Amino acid sequence: MEDFAPQKNAWSWEIKAESFWFRWQLPQLWSYRHLLLRIVRRDFLIHHQQTLLGPLWIIFQPMIILVTYLLIFERAVGLSTDGLSPTLFYLSGIILWTLFSECFTGTAFTFIQNGTLFGKVYFPRLIIPLSVVLVNLIRFGIQFSIFFLMLLALEPSRIIDNPLRWITCLFLSLVVVSGLGLGLGLVFSIFTAKYRDLVNVIHLIVRLLMFATPVIYPLSIVNPDVRIWVNLNPLCSLVELFRFGFLGEGTFTELQLLYSAACAVMLILAGTLLFNKFGNKLQDVI
Amino acid sequence: MGEPIIKVENLSKRYSLGHVGTGSFRQDLKRWWLSAIGKKEDPFFMDTLDSDASHIWALRDVSFEVKQGEVFGIIGRNGAGKSTLLKILSNIIRPTHGTIRGRGRINSLLEIGTGFHDELSGRENIYLNGYFLGMQRHEIRKKFDEIVEFSGVSKFLDTPVKRYSSGMYMRLAFAVAAHLEPDILIVDEVLAVGDAEFQKKCLGKMHDVSSKQGRTILYVSHNLPSVTNLCQRAMHLQNGKMIDIGIASRVVNQYLSKHQKKLHMQRWDDIAVAPGNNFIRMNFVELIPHLKNDDDPIDIRTPFTVKFKFWNLIPEQNICVGLHLFTLGRECIFDINSTPQEYSKGLVEGQCYIPGNFLNDGSYYFSLIFVKDTSVELFYFEECLSMEVEDYRVNMNWYGKWSGYVRPKFPFRMRQIAAEKEAVEGA
Questions:
Q1: Predicted confidence (pLDDT) at residue B311 exceeds the cutoff of 90
Q2: For B55-79, what is each residue's pLDDT tens digit?
Q3: Which of A182, A252, A277, B200 is the most exposed place for a label (fewest CB within 10 A)?
């Protein structure tokens, strides 16, 4: 629905056959902000209703993964952690990776999961993926505070000595990682609605991409010949940046960071354009 | 009322049939390959991909206007395109061709309880549902108490709605919807659910919204009396095309006479297949209206005769035939009986004359009952004939639905017994 300037006796909106690539409708999106917050609230409430541990699961999940990684990759395999504390090394990777993968998989199925809702009521469809990102940012916040407390207990000097560095690194990696997850998810959401095969592909992508991202290994141990290929993955430099901010070790260049940020911007742009153009038409095929 | 608030022009919606879903990626690739790379016309593929059979027009060139403050009904059978039209108006799907222009805020109620989540409390769901329906925060806050009171579930406000009875759930969902304040409200068949009490509440609220608050409503329903009662104007959709638009009661009647079966004659020459049993077999039933011109419709003034013939299969059977007249709502209007009499085995004929100026306008059907010895039912032939009686009035300024099942012209006399001055003095 397009809003025209309010004129007397004039039509105030129009519905046409054409859909447009560029139609941001930011004012409309803003007017639905309370819906966005309610959906976020709903997601938290329903996730933790009737569970024994409730919201504690947000913390338990990365902790269990952490213990597994410590047992397998540190004890059994003996993988290098750049000379850093293995606990903090793995945990930093895990929480950042979780943020990306949850943002991506959460938004990639927007149309499939909300098909019936979309068929019954109009609201800006972007609200749903945005709510997913917001939920995961809050979860990340909770997980991060645990990481932060552990860091404070184990290596307090890293936080106290250079606060500006870790705040900048945290902010940058957070924005770009969630942006990548959202952008990639938006693009995929259009295609998953039409081609259901992609549902399986997405789970495969997430699983394989984790191994191409320095979550369980530092980039420094990767063979320099292969490293250029690994760096094509925009998430790579971000995980390294995050580790650099908090643990003092990380392998990345400014150019790589710029590349990651550019990837995120491009994906979000492409995703929202596709969303604008095809969002309404998809209702016919779901 | 007067100014148009919605203007729909040449609206069409095409749906593709079949092969959507798995394998469509291959199909799309194939199509793209053929058109972009191949450029050659493979008749086999061309046929399957582009033939008209692979599409359906859910709406075709529909144009109409709805005026401010009007309640506008949309009627039609299942699959006529009503829901598609509402979905396009609600901005849920896009039309294939055509435009809709409108003024003011539009809210649609394609179902009640959209976005309700079972695990959440009534309170949470009021907010969630309200926001989904496009309400603003201050609106919901202002009306929250009113909504709770209207729904009557205040005691269970903090209980998850999955513990609600279905009635409570429905009342809560409707309470939120009832407090929407759009300029244009789109309502689809929400009355199909719920009990009579609930439906009454819904209709009452809709009536309030339209008459007291002066809002425009677009209303789709299978409940035709509600369309006649609530709507000023209506539109009849058939196979995606608009075939009638105008005063609601007229459009509804036309729709009824088009779709209700009009059965004026039935005949069975073969006794073996005729309806009946070992006692009675039907041979013939006919309803003969006594009209000046055969093409005239039956209206409230028309007298008619019901004729029937049947085979009596038992010798010397004492038979009495009852002629029942029913409304479409299965209310019996009369039950006329023949004099009980003994008949020999063979064909028996009967007829009954029903005078004009007796029935009210509406749809009716006849049933015949065959009774032995005035006590034992031999055969009941239900709905053997049916007809529509049209309205007819002269010198009237009112065109609402005339109440009652019958509309007889009994002697009714009035006269003035005193002029004003005299009456006052007398008191």
A1: yes
A2: 788 899 999 999 988 999 999 888 8
A3: B200
Pair B91, A15: CB distance under 8 Å? yes
**Quick one: pLDDT at residue B399?**
54
Quick one: pLDDT at residue B273?
87
Query: ipTM greater than 0.90, yes or no?
Result: no
Cα B320 from Cα B307, distance rounded (Å): 15
pLDDT computed for residue B47 by the predictor: 40
Q: Nearest Cβ partner of A121 from B103, B110, B127? A: B110
The listed range with the strongest mean pLDDT (A26-35, B33-42, B257-266) is A26-35
Whether A14 and chain B come into contact, CB under 8 Å, resolves to yes
CA distances A9 to A4, A6, A12, B184, Å, are 12, 9, 9, 16
Domains of chain B: 4-258 (3.40.50.300), 265-389 (2.70.50.60)
Q: Which of B7, B92, B117 sits opposite A283 (nearest CB)?
A: B92
